[in-house]
Amino acid sequence: MEKQQNQVALPLRPHTILGVCEAVGEDFGFNPVLLRVPFAAAVLWSPTMTLAIYFALGAVVLASRLLFPRAKSASVRSEAPTLSSANEQSQLAKAA
Asked: Each residue of 45-65: pLDDT tens digit?
């Protein structure tokens, strides 16, 4: 599954509500739509219970992210060239 490349925090993205389903999908490796659809259907059946479960799941996700922060992978850090390496590459291209 391909991860998103934008670095905006989950709750601040315009297409999510707190980002709970997306965070759970990201952590367990499945498409968050597979969790969003049952939540949407459950809202029709019992809105109060569904919202309570959603916010409880959100608290669990928040606690897990605060207690066990993920280190940035080396591949993400190496993809963004630094300013000095970009300058060095342009100077090498001019010299060649």
From this structure: 999 999 999 999 989 888 888
